[in-house]
Amino acid sequence: MKLVFAIPFPVISITASPTALAYIQIMDPSKNGNRAAWLQGPAGHCEVPPTDKVTPWRLILLGAPGVGKGTQADLLRARLGACHLSTGDVFRAAGSRPECDQSPAMREALQFMRRGELVPDSTVWELVRERRACLRCRGGFILDGFPRTLGQALSLEQLMKGEELSLTAVVSYELPAEEIVARLAGRRTCEKCKAVYHIVQRPPQMAGQCDHCGGKLFQREDDRPESIKVRLEAYEQSTKPLLEFYKKSGLLCQIAATGTPEQILARTVPEIEHHHLHQAAEQLWTAAENRR
Ligand code: AMP
Questions:
Q1: Which residues of the chain fall below pLDDT 70?
Q2: pTM of the model
Q3: CA distances from 284 to 54, 55, 140, 277, 287 (A)
């Protein structure tokens, strides 16, 4: 069967060159598999094959930057076995390569990212479209940071329809703006192993140094005050309308992102399990109908 994808944006190939693999592996701690197919694009092959599931978890995590989507994605990955697919991670992996290994479209995308602005839909969509095998993967997925605009959500919907895939649920993590700003401004990341700290809430034992590997801690360019403001505005204007979009489709779970990561996870799991059961029942029903 030939699959046809509707692409509402001009196509610019931004697939990483094969020499980028070494950098990608540094970005990607083994606890999360190597996610090469996601981080590198079509040329990458995941080291750890996914476990086949009858009803794979296919989740989207929404929420303002700094709300803790990445942490929840990692906890959910450990619990559900689905792969954590972050578009921000793909850009950061590309940004850590030498410029000569970056395509012109990726260099342009990184400029948007450094300013805290959204990367244009055409570039983001091409990046995801190139990686559509990850969406088809029988291990399932947890999308973190995509979709971020209505255009991206519509493109994803069309692609999934074409592939006969359905989403399990869309989780929106919610937190007051002041708390988000405090979280982002205090966030520090290890330049070697990518462990994340907070100068007040989760400080390292030695200031500026990673507890795990001794690496130097740095502040992400887009966590500086001027970029934080731009990122929060982008969320309000472009991403918040997605709540209504997914509410209409009955997939939305709204979760308070207050408390510890474990408390937030404990609030999330019963909500998504409800959707997963529903999805499994629908799948059985369709299979029974097809046998008739
Ligand atoms: P994140 O790690 O998800 O906060 O993403 C970091 C940055 O990457 C964002 O501030 C954007 O500049 C860019 N980015 C990541 N995902 C997207 C997306 N789906 N649409 C547009 N820009 C994105």
A1: 1-33
A2: 0.83
A3: 10, 10, 18, 11, 5
